[in-house]
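As a warm-up, study this chain.
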Amino acid sequence: CGAFEGGARSTPLHLVSAWAADGRLVLGQRLAQGRAEVEAALELVGLLRLEGTIATADALHCHREMAQAIRDRGGDYALAVKGNRGPIYEAAKALVDGAEPQAETRRAEQAHGRFEERRCVVAAVPPELAKRLKFPGLAAVARLDGLRRMGADEERATRYFLLSRQLAPDAALNVVRSHWGIENRLHWVLDVVFDEDRARARKDHAAVNLALLRRLALNLLQSDPYKASIRRKIKRAGWQDEYLFTLLAQMR
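Now compare it with the structure written out below.
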């Protein structure tokens, strides 16, 4: 919000980031020219080696070009699909809704006055259906049913995902849940700890360069074995040159 200039014919910087959920590292970023996040995401995927990984993305990036780009880089995908995808969504929904009920997993958690339950079902895509949909590498569909109860309030949600690898329901649930790590371990940290939302850099390439430096700094802090929050690590680096040099030495 700080980068927006009132009355100007421009909007704040839009970036697309690639996030390694297990390693908790930023793998790359790409500028979304004219807020074209779909094109920027495709360019970013083209820079990555994805062998042995499962790439996740939200519904904006659930399209054939993204699926093919991920497959071309050697990876598998788990792409959220919504009703605006028309025939693909309807076919995926019909397939998984008719799956055997025993082919599922359930998990329940209760903490901080909140109860959550998740149920995941995975159905294999028949070859004839995959051929008809013409979606590159499509092998299975997963459905995630979520229930959240807090006091008297109850919220239910159902989401569908296209998979290029046949996963067990438990594994599919892990993959889907790990996707949200980019929100609470990257975007939230950048906004709250690094105060990125209030950054006012707008001139030339300043905003892009500073955003890259923040992500490099976050990678160094995440990789450091010292047991402390990111905020405490930043303070320690400011107070102790020896610790700061230890962080920078990780870049060798």
